Structures are given as C-alpha cells and as structure tokens.
Amino acid sequence: MKLSGWGKYPVVDCQLSKPRSEEELSQSVLKSNAIARGNGRAYGDSALNRTNTIDMRKFSHMLSFDPKSGQLVAESGVLLSDIIKAFLPRGWFPIVTPGTRFVSLGGMVAADVHGKNHHVDGSFGNCIDWLDVMSADGNVMRCSRTENAELFNWTIGGMGLTGVILRVALRLRSVNTGWIRQTTHVAQNLDTAIDMFEDSLDATYSVAWIDCLSSGDALGRSLVMLGEHATLSELPNKCRANLFPSVSKPKLAVPFSLPRFCLNTYSVRAFNALYYWNGKRGDATSYVNWNSYFYPLDSIMNWNRIYGRKGFAQFQCVLPLGNARTSLNDMLEEIAASGRGSFLAVLKRFGKQESRFSFPMEGYTLALDFPISNGSVSLIQKLGQMTAKGGGRIYLAKDSIMNAQSLRATDAARVAEFETMRQTSGAAERFASMQSERLKL
Amino acid sequence: MSNGPVLILGARSDIAQATAHEYAEHGYPIQLAARNSETLQIIKHDFETRYQIQVTLHDFDVLDVERHAEFVDGLPELPEIVVCAVGALGNQEEDEKDILGAAQIIRSNFEGPASILAVLANRFEKRASGSLVGISSVAGERGRATNYIYGSAKAGFSAYLSGLRNRLSKKGVHVVTVLPGFVDTKMTESLDLPEKLTAQPSEVASAIVRATKKRKNIVYSKPVWAFIMTVIRSIPEFLFKKMRI
C-alpha cells in the first residue's frame, strides 16, 4: 500500500504487515530486510521499506505503572497521546515530549526525540530505564544502561536500524496541574534571541519562533517563549476549576491537500507578521493548557496537507555552541534571500548530550519546513553543507533529502561506528529503511 | 453511583476489545470471556494500567452450550451489560462441500450465542435490569451466494435478538442488535474492503456504548449501511438471484 512519512514525501508503495504477537513479528522480521513503523510521524522515509514495512500499532498495550517511581512499562506501539490521556489526570506527564503527541513510543526511542526542555532534561533516552528489542535473529533482548548496554545505547537514536523496539520502560514526571506558565519575549534579531536563551538556561522550557523572511537588522527576529509547569497555588481561579484540562476533539481539520498557491510567499509573510505582532502585544505571562503549549499543531488535524499534494520536507540541524551565531546567521540570510521561508521556523537551545547516534549536541537547533520543489531541495542541500561547515548535524527523523556523502560530511566518525556495529551484530542484513539505503547506513 | 460490570463474550475479537476499551474508559469493571482466557492477560494489564478498573478473565466456549449456565454462575457478579461478539466467518466455498464445517459456522454464529444470551436474559429478567448487546451482521439481512452460510446464521441471530427485545422490553431489560458493515479487523484482514464503507473497530465500539446509554435498538457501524441495506432488501428476488453482489 502507498505509505509516506508525515511530510508526504516521498510516497512509496510498500508491503505492510501488521503482526499481533512476538511470533508473528519474528516471522515478519526473518522474511527479508525490514523496518518497523509506528504512527508514521517521522517526516521522510525513515519508516518505509518497499518489501517489508512492519506496522507496530497492534503492540499497543500498557503493561504496568509504578506510582512510586513514575515508571510506566508499555509496548512500543502505544501513542504518547494515550499515555497523557491515562496519566495526566493522575498528575503525571512525559519528561520529554516532541511537538506532537501522536508519536509512538517506539518512534520516540528510535529518533531519540527532544523537547523544549532539552537544555535541562536532555533527550527522551534519558527517561528510559530499559528496552526490549527484537534483534536480527528474531530473539527478544532486554537491554538497559547495565544489561546489553551496547544494544541499548545504539538503539536510542538508532532509527530502528538495530532491531525492532518492542517494549519500553520509561519514567514520567509528577506534575501539580496541566497548566504551563508561559512568558513570551520579543527579540529584534537573532543575536538578541540567542542572548535570551543564554540568559534563560534555568527555564524548564524554552523555544523561539523565527520570522524567516525578515532581513537586514531584523534578520532572525523572533518570539522567545519560556515555560514552567504551573503549581496549584499560583493558578488563576478559572484554571483551577479545570486542573487537568482534557483534549477536546480537534475543531479544525485540513480536509484535503491544498493547492500549492495557498502557500505562496505572501501568505507566509502574512502569517509571520500576524504571529509576530500577536506575540508583541501579549508580551507578558499567561497560563496556557498543556495541549496548546506543547502541541499547538495537533489541534489542526492533517496540517501536513497544507503544503499541497507534492508534500514537504523539513530541515532540522543542530550547530555547536561556538559556531551557532555565525552559522545560523548565514543560514537565515540564505533562507531570507531565497524567499522560500517556511511556515514554521523554530530555534531551540540544546544542552550537553553524549550519545552513540542521537541527534542532539550542545548548541542551537533550527527547524524549518519547505514545500517540495526543485528550488527547495537545492536550498536544503545548501543548508546541509552549511551545517557540515559549522560542525553540526542533521536530524534523521526529519530528513528525506540528504545523501550518503552529505551525511558523512556532518557526522563521519559516528556514522562509521554505526556501520561497524550494524555489520557485526547482523542488523545490517536484517533492518533497512529507504532512508538507511539512501544514506548507505 | 458505580457502574456494574460489562461482560464481553468472545473477547479476542477486535470489535470486542475496542468495545471493552470504551466501557473501561467510562469506568466500568470488565469481565473478559473467551477460550484460553489466560492469553488475554496482556489486555487485563493494559486496562488496569490505563483505566485503574477491575478486569477479570473467564474461560468460555460458545459451542459448549451445556455449560453456559455454569459459566454464568462462575462470574464474580452478574454483569450489568453483556456484549456478545462471538462469531466465525468461515470459508463459504469450502463449507458448501463440508456439511460439518457449515454446521460449525452456524452453531458458532447462532446456536452458541443464542444459548448464552438465553441464560443471561433469564437472569436479567429476574433482576429486571441490564442490557444485552448482540453483534450480528448486515450479511444476515439477505442471503448472498458468496456468504450465505455465515449470513443465514447471522439472520437467525438477528431474529433471535429481535424476539428477545420484544419479550424483555416490558421487563426493564434492553436488547441491542449491532449490524456492522465492513470493519477493519483481523477477521477481514485478507479481504480488499472499500475504505469509505469500512469502519474502524473503535467506531463500532462507540456506537455500541452510545446504544446502551441511549437505549437504541439497532445500530450500524456507519450510517450509510442503513441506507445500503434498505436498498439491498428492496431488490425483487427475481432480479436479486441474477446479481453478483
């Protein structure tokens, strides 16, 4: 059947199996080289395999919860949205969450996702106690920081290329309320935005939205948004009445792929200006519910259709702290000059991270969407080269464009070790995605 | 007021599990009944972790009609709601030649479900409360060459449910007939179903929970099926016999 990632590019005819038990799963794994697929929220081709894509969503059981430690054990097809639905009313929230709650646990592990609190809590891998992974021989291995540590460390961020993630033991965070105290600051340009991040390292959550089309002195003008979990005592009365607000059914949906002209430069400009002035007017503290704070786009179902039938690509890089200012400045100039500014450009400070193959490193990460076209593909390639020059990396969960050479230009040493590990463990013959083939991993 | 338990018969099916989820989410304790019920342990863990409700597992064989009364006696509590999701699609072509195979399909879809619902109906009648939900099929609305063995058994089951409803409506017991059209389940995994007419198990589950809450009599998985079946029922037999549908 026709499958794609969230970016709807590429769309590929794949053989899909839906195993319901470990036995059925091992049959699928042993049939031919395979990739596991969760809820299809990686943007590109990370979870596509023409001859053998394994849909893991039947593995969707929660197995146990320990209210003392906050440890939840669940199968990898469980969605983050289900975890929040079950546990937020009891005062628990994920320690690390990406920008959508419609991701599977397996996908979160494979991409080692990060959230707005990376500079404080690190990536998703930090809250995982152990994993069960089906390896190349079809056997299931328990792994953790102390048991089969190699497999554990490579699997977190390993894009499903070390084995099939079956079960995850993760810790949740205890929260007082489902509200976030948000403070929004306006930054006139990139430098100010970065200064604000550096001054706000003690804020639990921080993220900036960048107007990609501004240039000159206003290059990189942004809204920097800081957030803290609100405690009961600080909450205004109207929020207290609904301590753990639940999600209403999404009110907005994009019913079909919009024609391309809906997203021309003008509409993006209008959107950007609106967002900017809105934020400027509300330059103050407000209380927002968890859903609109963490998952603003989740309330517009199928928002990926806004880019039209051809789909879109997302570019996300991270640049090390030392080079971040100059590299980001160059990139934003390149983007502003191209006039291909994206709907969403997000800047975020990462904290320190040592990991085998995960994306984050200490520095700044920039993420943007581009509707697919020849021009945007070459712009993304150009941005990739600039990332390599700045000593940064590209996020594989977002990528659909890079080639084997450009990957190695950003991450040569780790890629070489990853390849060796895949060869010696037998994973190279057994697990492959269109992305891993494109990148020759 | 706390909810009484919901008994799910044939708990291994996708529709049954989706329905159990929906009731569990509303806070009902759940009794899951199926053959080899210990293999449903993972569902029990899942529900207990997600919904903090009580789940019990019970061995149940729909064909073992002699022990149905004993089965009901063995439940920790007489349920408030029963959902009978037992059934088997069979293989029409093979079963046309294999009389015993056909009999097995008829027994699994009609005789067995009728027997267990009879036991429960009598107890509900005595108690003067409760809801009985039978999952039948649109295949029972008209016999077709491609699945009339399954369809005729479901037709019998639908008539049985209708009769039960008629008998018990004055006794405080409600009966719901569910007529799912195409549903995306393990049972239909090998069939190529039209997407627009195919419901997800969770849609059927929501329809069932709504039906017991609002005391509806007959529910379809998607409203369009009520229309489709009206058309199919109204085709004159002299035309219908020549059609391939």
What's the SSE blueprint?
The complex is a heterodimer of chains A (441) and B (245).
Chain A: E1 2-3, E2 12-13, E3 16-17, H1 22-31, E4 35-37, E5 53-55, E6 62-66, E7 71-75, H2 80-87, E8 92-94, H3 105-111, H4 118-121, E9 128-134, E10 140-144, H5 149-155, E11 164-174, E12 179-187, H6 190-199, E13 205-210, E14 222-229, H7 237-240, E15 252-253, H8 265-281, E16 285-289, H9 290-294, E17 300-301, E18 312-320, H10 324-338, E19 345-350, E20 363-371, H11 374-389, E21 393-394, H12 404-425, H13 427-430, H14 434-438
Parallel strand pairs in A: 3-5, 4-5, 15-17
Antiparallel strand pairs in A: 1-2, 6-7, 7-11, 8-11, 9-10, 9-11, 12-14, 12-16, 13-14, 13-19, 18-20, 18-21, 19-20
Helix pairs in contact in A: 10-11, 11-12
Chain B: E1 6-9, H1 14-25, E2 30-34, H2 41-51, E3 55-59, H3 68-73, E4 81-84, H4 92-97, H5 99-127, E5 131-135, H6 148-168, E6 174-179, H7 201-214, E7 218-220, H8 224-234, H9 237-240
Parallel strand pairs in B: 1-2, 1-4, 2-3, 4-5, 5-6, 6-7
Helix pairs in contact in B: 1-2, 1-7, 5-6
Organism (chain B): Ruegeria halocynthiae
Family (chain B): Belongs to the short-chain dehydrogenases/reductases (SDR) family.
Protein name (chain B): Short-chain dehydrogenase
Number of helices of chain B: 9
Can you tell me the CATH topology of chain B? Rossmann fold
CATH T-level topology of the largest domain in chain A: Alpha-Beta Plaits
What would you call the shape of chain B?
globular
Task: Tell me roughly what share of residues is in helical segments of chain A.
Answer: 25-40%
The CATH fourth-level homologous superfamily of chain B: NAD(P)-binding Rossmann-like Domain
Number of β-strand runs of chain A: 21
Shape of chain A: globular
CATH architecture of the largest domain in chain A: 2-Layer Sandwich
CATH architecture of chain B: 3-Layer(aba) Sandwich
- Contiguous low-pLDDT stretches of chain A (5 residues minimum) are none
- Name the pair of protein chains with the most residues at their interface, and give those residue counts: A-B, 11 and 9 residues
User: Rounded to an integer, what's the Rg of chain A over CA atoms?
Assistant: 21 Å
What is the CA–CA distance across the termini of chain B? 49 Å
Roughly how much helix do the residues of chain B carry, as a percent range? 40-55%
Give me the strand/helix succession of chain B. Answer: EHEHEHEHHEHEHEHH
β-strand amount of chain A: 15-25%
- Average pLDDT, all residues of chain A: 92
Strand arrangement, major sheet of chain B: 3-2-1-4-5-6-7
Structure summary, number of beta strands of chain B: 7
Strand pairing plus helix content of chain A: what structural class? alpha+beta
Keywords (chain B): Oxidoreductase
GO molecular function, one term (chain B): oxidoreductase activity
Family (chain B): Belongs to the short-chain dehydrogenases/reductases (SDR) family.
Protein name (chain B): Short-chain dehydrogenase
